Amino acid sequence: MTLRLQADGPHPRLDRFLQERLPDYSRARLQSWIKNERVFVDGEPAKPSRELRGGETVEVRPEDLPPLKAFAEDLPLEILYEDEDVIAVNKPAGMVVHAGAGTHSGTMVNALLHHFQKLSNVGGELRPGIVHRLDKFTSGVILVARSDLAHRALAGQFSRRKVEKVYLTLVHGRVERDSGRIDKRITRDPRRRTRMTARREYGRSALTEYRVLRRFEGFTYLEVRIGTGRTHQIRVHLSTIGHPVAGDRLYGAPASVPGRPRLERYFLHAHRIRFHSPRSGAEVTVEAQLPDDLREWMEGLES
To answer: Which pLDDT value is given to residue 297?
Structure first.
């Protein structure tokens, strides 16, 4: 199979051009294809830094990367709940859920394999047990399946929107209404590929509901429930209505707040998950309290 692309204008680097035009492939995979001379510009193998002036024909001849396999690492892990089928972990901010482009160790999966050895295989050897994910800098409750049967049962609950997911977040500005609902489609931002956007008519459906817990000068503390689990959903939805998550510079939050220490992460925490046991059908609720760093930063707003 050969992918043929036309450079529609000048681009300073070939690798960035490919990232924009082929978003379904990771940066690491695209770089590997260039390195292995599987990317051609006007019939000649090209380097990642090749400048495109516009009008060139770019051919990509994909190849599979060697399969990756997660390995066990002795890393600390806070277990909130555990039974024969399911593990609930309180993921700290800064920990990646599973290996991917540029990250091969120090992940939650590496820690899980050390503590539990056997997890479900439905997600493959790189993502054993992983039914859903949290962003790197989002802390809180995440569920892990111990068996393939449990994995499929949990995945079914997520797809049917039977899993209750509640988050806590602090946003910039005064949210006037005590509660609200955001129902806007989400898609990749065509201008900045690291972002998502809810400002297009197309994309995947997404539902976010919020309730005001407390108001501060210049900030509002919210409880948020999501009916879907789109990439960056809470962050992009709240930013779209003019209230970016505190510390989230990717979606419009200021880099600093006068008189306050710098937030080293964005203020978003997965507080509660409610699901049904794959084995018994009983309802299970797991909660993770707001981390000290976020609680102390918010309490500092009172003064």
So the answer is: 96
pLDDT at 65 over 60: no
Q: Which CATH number fits domain 164-302: 3.30.2350.10, 3.60.15.10, 3.40.50.300, 3.20.20.80?
A: 3.30.2350.10
DSSP for residue 22: -
Two domains, one topology: 79-159 and 164-302: yes
Q: How far apart are CA 169 and CA 246, in angstroms?
A: 8
Task: Give the model confidence (pLDDT) of 243-256 as tens digits.
Answer: 999 999 999 999 99
Question: Above 60 in pLDDT, residue 66?
Answer: no
Q: What rounded mean pLDDT belongs to the chain?
A: 92
What residues are labeled active site? 135
Class of domain 79-159: alpha beta
Q: How many CA atoms lie within 13 A of 20 on its CB side?
A: 15
Give the phi and the psi of residue 159 in degrees, each rounded to 5: -65, -30
Domain boundaries, the chain: 3-60, 79-159, 164-302
Domain 3-60 has CATH 3.40.50.720: no
Res. 227: pLDDT tops 90:
no
Model confidence, pTM: 0.79
* 250-295 tens-digit pLDDT: 999 999 999 999 998 999 999 999 999 999 999 999 999 999 999 9
For 12, counting Cβ atoms within 10 Å of its Cβ (0-12 exposed, 13-18 middle, 19+ buried), the class is exposed
Q: Quick one: pLDDT at residue 27?
A: 78
Contacts of the segment 18-25: beta carbons below 8 A, 24+ positions apart: 18/58, 18/60, 19/193, 20/193, 22/60, 23/188, 23/193, 25/62
